[in-house]
Design goal:
The complex is a heterodimer.
Chain A lengths: L3 E4 L2 E4 L5 E7 L4 E9 L5 E8 L5 E2 L8 E7 L2 E6 L8 E9 L7 E3 L3 E5 L1
Parallel strand pairs in A: 2-11
Antiparallel strand pairs in A: 1-3, 3-8, 4-5, 4-9, 5-6, 7-8, 9-10, 9-11
Chain B lengths: L2 E3 L4 E5 L4 E3 L2 E3 L5 E8 L6 E7 L7 E2 L2 E6 L4 E6 L8 E11 L2 E2 L3 E2 L3 E6 L1
Parallel strand pairs in B: 2-13
Antiparallel strand pairs in B: 1-4, 3-9, 5-6, 5-10, 7-8, 8-9, 10-11, 10-12, 10-13
Classes of the chains: A mainly beta, B mainly beta.
Chain lengths: ~120, ~120
């Protein structure tokens, strides 16, 4: 089945630094990737939608200059949390959608737990 | 805008018994998908079952089945013969159907299910 690899699975960084999270589709081409954030004991909230080769579409309230998303290839999307602060500590998870009807289901990465100290 | 509501923050069930998790949603669209996802402590999102709105027949996957009531906009999940491994957060989710392809997922707040030995 389709596999999405997300790296790193967890990261601890100091306040003010930047962190990059990668989301790779291993055996299919992902034309669209979605980035979600999940705070403890809460649901997944969509942050942004990225389409290969174009700018990401951000949900209301998500700062595009803080959460930089790049989807430069059909197998890789990255989320960079810039100038991270403790309130950015959360669980970030990506999902990918492939091309064509047969690849319509969304496949999730295993998530990244970010802790900003 | 579409919304998904899960009115049961927590549920518990005895091993081998049956439990039903509730979900209602709101949409003015006619063509969409509904899902139940399981999120164990590892935080991995695991697809449990999927229902296409145009199909009247309720989806089933082994011990998991749904009661899809389109007019009532209700989509409950029944877990039969509950197992200890079913202990997890369960999220109901909605997405639009774009010619067989999915849009982004809109999640409910989740139900924490505990299966007791």
């Amino acid at each position: 089945g389709a596999v999405v690899s997300q790296h790193p699975s967890w990261v601890i960084c100091k306040s003010g630094t930047s962190v990059k999270i990668e989301c790779r589709s291993l055996d299919f081409q992902a034309t669209t990737m979605f980035w979600y954030r999940q705070f403890p004991k809460q649901s997944l909230m969509l942050m942004a939608t990225s389409n290969e080769g174009s700018k990401a579409t951000y949900e209301q309230g998500v700062e595009k200059d803080k959460f930089l998303i790049n989807h430069a290839s059909l197998t890789l999307s990255t989320l960079t949390v810039t100038s991270a602060h403790p309130e950015d500590s959360s669980f970030y998870i990506c999902s990918a959608r492939g091309t064509g009807v047969n690849n319509s289901p969304l496949h999730f990465g295993n998530g990244t737990r970010l802790t900003v100290t | 805008a579409q919304t998904v509501t899960q009115s049961q923050p927590e549920m518990s069930v005895q091993e081998a018994e049956t439990v039903t998790l509730s979900c209602t949603y709101d949409t003015s669209e006619n063509n969409y998908y509904l899902f139940w996802y399981k999120q164990p402590p590892s935080r991995q999102m695991i697809l449990v079952i999927r229902q296409e709105a145009y199909k009247q027949q309720n989806a089933t996957e082994n011990r998991f089945s749904v009661n899809f009531q389109k007019a009532a906009k209700s989509f409950s999940l029944k877990i039969s013969d509950s197992q200890l491994g079913d202990t997890a957060m369960y999220f109901c989710a909605f997405t639009m159907n774009y010619g067989g392809s999915q849009g982004n997922l809109i999640f409910g707040k989740g139900t924490k299910l505990s299966v007791k030995p």
